[in-house]
Structures are given as C-alpha cells and as structure tokens.
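Reference record
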Amino acid sequence: MRMLRVVTLAVLLILIVTVPSSAAPGPKAKPLKVKVVAQNGAFCPAAALVYGNVVIQAGRCYALFVLRTAAGTFLAFGPPGPPGIPPGQVVRLGTPAGAKVRGRIFYLIPIRTTAVLVPVDTITPVAVRVEDFGPRLTITLISVPVPNLIVIFNVQL
C-alpha cells in the first residue's frame, strides 16, 4: 500500500512539472495580411465578415466610422468617397449633414469601450489597422483616444 502511494505521488509530481510547460502559450500567430486604412479610406473585405448575427457583404468597399447614440457606440460601415466627413471632424447626427451620413450607413457593429470615443449623437471617420488571420479578421481602431480597441470578425468563406 505504501509503495502505491509513493508511485502515485511520483506520477503527480511529474504531471505538475510537465503540464504547465506544455500548456504555456506558444508564439503569437502572425497575420497573413496587414493593411492600414486611412480615415475615409476604402476597406474592401475579400470575404463576408460575421460578427454575431451581422454579416458584412464581400465584393464592395466601405468607409469606417465611429457612431455613438443613446443606444451605445458602434463601428459603422458606410460608402467610401464623397460626400464624406473630413478627417478628424465630428458631425452631429441632428444636423442635415449628420442625417445624410446616418442615412447612408450599411452596418452597425456594437463596440464596448472604457472611454468616450465621440460625444453622444455624433459620428466621425476612423483610421483602422486590418489584420487578416485567415478564418479571423481583426480591425483595430488607431485614430481614437482608446488604444488597441479591437473588433474581431469571423471570415465566412
């Protein structure tokens, strides 16, 4: 009986020593493609992007905005090109220009932030860093006061 306890203790010690080292995180995956899209620049996904129950169509280009309403803060996908919002400018949704831009938004993706990106009922264009990992695509907002604000999409092939 004593020999069984010694063997069990030895196996347990070996597992304790080896399992954490084999479960340690390996090197981070490198993205297949990285692209920086300027404010009002065109972001053109090669495949459909899925976030929750929202599917963003492939085959067309989008300009990316941060939109904030009383319902929350959103990453908004709208048409690129004129009439656009000048880079760095915040447009109130209650103005004629804001209503025009709001009416042209295709998709709204909710984002959670720890700080205020824009005032309530406003919209502004954002620059982003797009990293394609194959089955996953990340969009990092780089022209906002909160560093490393990332939205992760699944790629639908």
